[in-house]
Structures are given as C-alpha cells and as structure tokens.
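Appendix B. Raw example, untouched.
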Amino acid sequence: MRWRKIRRHAFNGSVLDVLATPKTLPASPLKSRPASREKVLPLLGVVLAWLAGAGCKRPESTASQPPDIVAEVGDVAITRSQLLVAWERRAKTHPTNVPPSAVLSELVDDAATYVRARNEGFLDRPEVQTALRQLVVSRYREACLATNATPIEPSESAVRVAYESQTNAMVRPPAFNVAIFLHEVPRRATPEKRREARERVEGWRAEILRASDPAAAFASLVAERSADKATRYRRGEVGWASMDEFQRRFPAEVATAVRALRPGDTSDVVETPQGLYLVRVLGQRPASVRAFEEAAPQIRHQLREQNRFAREASIRSAARMGIQIRTNATLLASLAASRPPQRAAIPAPSPMERTNP
C-alpha cells in the first residue's frame, strides 16, 4: 500500500502544505490478517478527521521557531522587524511594489554569505577585524552622541555673544566690481609684434573713450575680441571681489591698475605675461561690518561644530576610564625616528595589457 506523507512548514506566519515524494511503506498487517469492521472503521474515521483538519486548519508557529522570526539561516535569525526595515528601505528606492518574499530572499543571501565567511575563518583576518572594530567604534560614538543631554545646537544668546566678541572678524574689506578685456600676445613674440599688439589695444581704448556710452563700447569690445573665456560672455564682468581675491585670480599688474581707478574709469593698457589688459571699474564698495543677521548662520555653524567636537572629546575621554592602557615606549620611539610607510604605487598596464570593459 502506498501513502503520501503530509509535511507542514511554518514560514513568516503562513503555512505551506507540501506533499512528499511517494514512498513505499512496509507491508501492513492489515493485508495479512483481516480486520473486523468494528476495529477498522473507527481507525479510518480518526485518520480522515486528522486529514480534514490538516487541510483546513491554520496551525500556529512551531515551538522551535518563535513567531517573530521570519527565517533562520544556520544560527542566524532574520526577524520580522529586520524584514520590515529592509522592505521599507527598498520601497523608497523602487517605485514598483516589491513583495516581502523578494526582500527576504536578499536578506537570506546576505545571512548565508555571512555564515559562510564566518565558517571559513574570514572574520578572523586582521584587516577584517580592524574594519569591524572601526565600525563598532563609529556606531558606539554615534549612539553616545544621540543620548548625550548636552545640546549641540547653540542658543540665540550664544550666537549673539560670539558675534559681539568677533567684531574684527566681521569687518568686510573693500570690494570692487570690475570688467576686464584681454588681448593675448604669445610669450615668444618679438618686440615688434608686441608693439603692434599694444598699438591695436590702444586704438580700441581710444574708441571706448570717444563713445557716447563707454560702458556699452567696452562690453561690445569684450564680446567680440576678449581672450578671457570666463568673462567674455558676461560683458567682461568679474563680479564683486576684494583686492586679495583679485590678486589671487589675476596678475599683480591688473590688481595695481584696479587700485588706481574710480568707478567709471578705464585703465591704460596693462602689460602682463599673459597678454595686454584693459580694466574698467564698474563699482566700488567701502569696508563695512557684516550685520548680525548676515553673520549669524556662519557663527551658528561654527558653534555647532565646537559643541560637537567637545562632546566627542568627552566620549573619548570617558571610554578610557577604568581600562588599563599600556604603551611600548621603546617601539614607539623607534617608529618616530623612521618615516611612515608608503603604499607602493600600482604600475599602469601597458597598452597591450589593457582590455576593454
């Protein structure tokens, strides 16, 4: 007589009824010895009743697997909360609906990889131990920062006090709004070529000064002939900048010419290694003190970083308390006398060794 076993598996709160592969059972005593109707019928009724209950009744989770555990991978359990967090994270990055079974499959893959790596001794490698230690340190400090009662966000009064104590730092230096024109001259140009280039630029300057609208004439010259690509399509305007900023961006000769001009003036031809410049000052702003409303965001950020640094220093100091720390002074001194190790550069592959991705 051939029977089918019914195996019942609990998985994430749902029950799957799986029919096992048919298997030949040992000969039943019922074949060799006739049974009376009084003995067979009650037994058959019990079996049918059990089968009916197995097909209709939804059993509870097994005692060996707590109801909060969705899956077990070796000795690693995947809980319902872990699945919900991963499912929510996936829903934020994927607009289409992803079933929880697909998310669980990825969690199982990760858990299986972890178990495999641990069983093969991968977690015992020094570089892995270092990475794990750094991860624990980072997460622990983040948790301590989150539970620390000291506020990181500075109060409005603290921002005001810091502003009043930094009056000198709140002074804004004089600024200039400048437009430039550049006519490039090759560095190896002969004196004759340089003289010809200067005469051309002087002629263009004379046309600007004779124009009824010198500003428009200067902008037209820049748009047609300037070699400075950053300002050519902005009428030559550099924008508001302090003298220090001009000196970092342009040759010193240009900054010197700016100092000697007033708003509306056009400079003489300025010779530099890069070429010949014409400079026009569009506006000038004297030194001033930044208002509190303008400086407050920057001060607030500085105080916030100071508070965070102080709290982190407190956490590092507290971590050392009660822990014995010993230092090998001799080894440390020998290392201090040597240069720090440098990672060897990886040679670039030769053209014959390169392969297309």
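End of appendix B.
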